[in-house]
Write a structure and sequence with these properties.
It contains two helices and 40 strands. By secondary structure, it is mainly β.
């Protein structure tokens, strides 16, 4: 009995040992997983990563993936490829794949990217061009890797560290959040960055000629920038020559009267009042210019100043002009008032001339039917004009107790042989300012009334209409040289004399000019 038991026990031990050996051989025959590569080599938590290798299980539950010790979720598996999601809380380090107790380790570390944050920014507001510092975490130290936007408008990053970005407020930026994007991941500020609207509080002067300087006062301009501040006067670009946060200095463009608009980096404002762009008179060939601003001085720069009367009783009185400005025109009494300029060489004009001015008749003549505004001629012993040029009104009876007046503008030769009178067939009413211009170009005369061409007259045989302008003094307010009963009764303003024939466009400019308005 004891012999049987001993033999059985020995057989059992041998069998168990053999089974152990067989079992060990089976374990040693299971292939170990191998990691060949990981794509991408860095990613944010939540990103899918592809692990390429061999000996993986096709059952996603059989493949255990760890990112530096943190278990990841496997979403797809083949024998050569595992797709796993970088887990939250993972840190940079080796990647492990464990299957049936066998573990593969990546050769290189996998970098777990940390989401960046925007903690604050300074200053809290600014116009385009302002430098802003953004503070946060996990920024890229490479400036171009960080995409910064101000309420959706991309800014230029000028400097970058892991915790700080320096950017410039872009053109077109508006009030809103600041966002920072890195690797297509975006983080935004919790508060708005304010891009303030510019304001215009005033501008000076209120009017000026093209080319003059105007100072615009307001707020929220781009300090020091001649390009970020854009100015228009009635939709015409003006050049900015100096800029502070509160003042812009600009040059008036060739524009028309209208509002001033200021644009600062896409934010714009318009003035409440118009800026008046004054219209100058033509300057080329200008011999004399009498705006009558309380005196008879020549404003052409040629100093051909006039003298008010030859006695105290002959001095015209300053009065309001066509713009309603007091003291900006002269009132001639129709009796003996006159202004004389003498006979300087500059006024001895021949062949080509332009005379123009504004006239407002106070009353019709009832005795002598001629009322002179300007004369530059000499009367001979026979009472005839010898040479020169003249402007006068000729009154014609129209009906009982009523007269109409026709403007006449003319030239004479030395022998009174050629008397070229330009008679305008449109009467000039009482109490209304009328613009008259005579343009002589050799043998042709043109007469304008209120900017309308009323007459074109050619001389017989093509002879010069103004062969001699040397005779007599230039006198305003009479027909001839002295008070003779043909005196002007009314208001006169803005007399101009040119030694050339103005074009139709220049006559229009002369008619529309506002340089004498102020």
């Amino acid at each position: 009995m004891k012999r049987v038991s001993a033999s059985f026990m020995l057989a059992s031990v041998v069998l168990a040992f053999n089974l152990f050996l067989v079992s060990c051989k089976k374990d040693e025959s299971k292939p170990k997983p191998v990691i060949a590569s990981i794509t991408p080599s860095s990613a944010y938590p939540g990103t899918d990563v592809t692990i390429t290798g061999k000996n993986f299980k096709t059952d996603v539950n059989a493949d255990i993936v760890l990112f530096a010790g943190t278990v990841a979720t496997v979403t797809s598996a083949t024998s050569t490829e595992i797709i796993a999601t970088v887990p939250q809380g993972a840190i940079s380090g080796k990647v492990f794949v464990s299957i049936d107790g066998n573990t593969a380790v990546s050769d290189t570390d996998f970098t777990v990217l940390q989401l960046h944050t925007v903690a604050s920014f300074t200053p809290a507001s600014g116009v385009a061009g302002t430098s802003v510092t953004i503070t946060g975490t996990n920024f890229s130290a490479t400036a171009t890797d960080n995409t910064v936007k101000f309420n959706g408008t991309t800014a230029v990053v000028t400097a970058a560290t892991a915790t700080s970005l320096t950017v410039t407020v872009p053109l077109g930026a508006t009030t809103g959040k600041i966002s920072v994007s890195i690797n297509n991941r975006e983080a935004s500020s919790t508060t708005d960055f304010t891009v303030p609207l510019p304001t215009i509080t005033s501008f000076a002067p209120a009017y000026a000629l093209a080319g003059a300087t105007v100072t615009i006062t307001g707020t929220n301009f781009a300090n020091g920038s001649l390009t970020l501040n854009k100015v228009k006067i009635n939709n015409t670009d003006a050049t900015v020559t100096a800029a502070t946060a509160t003042q812009l200095t600009v040059t008036v463009p060739t524009a028309t009267t209208g509002r001033i608009a200021v644009d600062v980096g896409g934010q714009s404002v318009t003035s409440a009042a118009d800026f008046e762009v004054l219209i100058d008179i033509p300057r080329n060939g200008l011999v004399a210019f009498y705006p009558f601003k309380g005196n008879a001085n020549d404003a052409s720069g040629n100093n051909l100043h006039g003298t008010l009367g030859t006695s105290a009783s002959q001095i015209p009185v300053p009065t309001a002009d066509r713009f309603g400005k007091a003291g900006q025109a002269y009132d001639f009494d129709g009796v003996d008032d006159l202004i004389t300029m003498g006979n300087p060489a500059a006024l001895q004009i021949s062949n080509q001339i332009t005379l123009a001015g504004w006239f407002n008749i106070r009353a019709y003549k009832t005795s002598t039917l001629i009322m002179g505004m300007l004369s530059k001629t000499r009367i001979d012993n026979n009472g005839q004009f010898n040479g020169g040029y003249t402007m006068y009104f000729d009154f014609q009876p129209n009906q009982p107790n009523s007269f109409v007046t026709w403007p006449h503008l003319g030239t004479y030769d030395a022998n009174h042989t050629y008397d070229f009178l330009g008679s305008v067939n449109t009467p000039s009413p009482i109490g209304t300012w009328v613009f008259l211009a005579m343009v002589v170009d050799g043998a042709t005369m043109k007469v304008y009334q209120n900017n309308a061409l009323k007459l074109t007259k050619n001389s017989n045989g093509g002879v010069a209409m103004l062969p001699d302008g040397a005779q007599g003094n230039l006198v305003l307010g009479v027909y001839g040289q002295t008070s003779s009963g043909f005196n002007y009764n009314g208001f006169m303003d803005d007399m101009t004399i040119y030694n050339r024939a103005l074009t139709a466009a220049e006559v229009t400019q002369l008619y529309q000019q506002t340089v004498t308005k102020y």
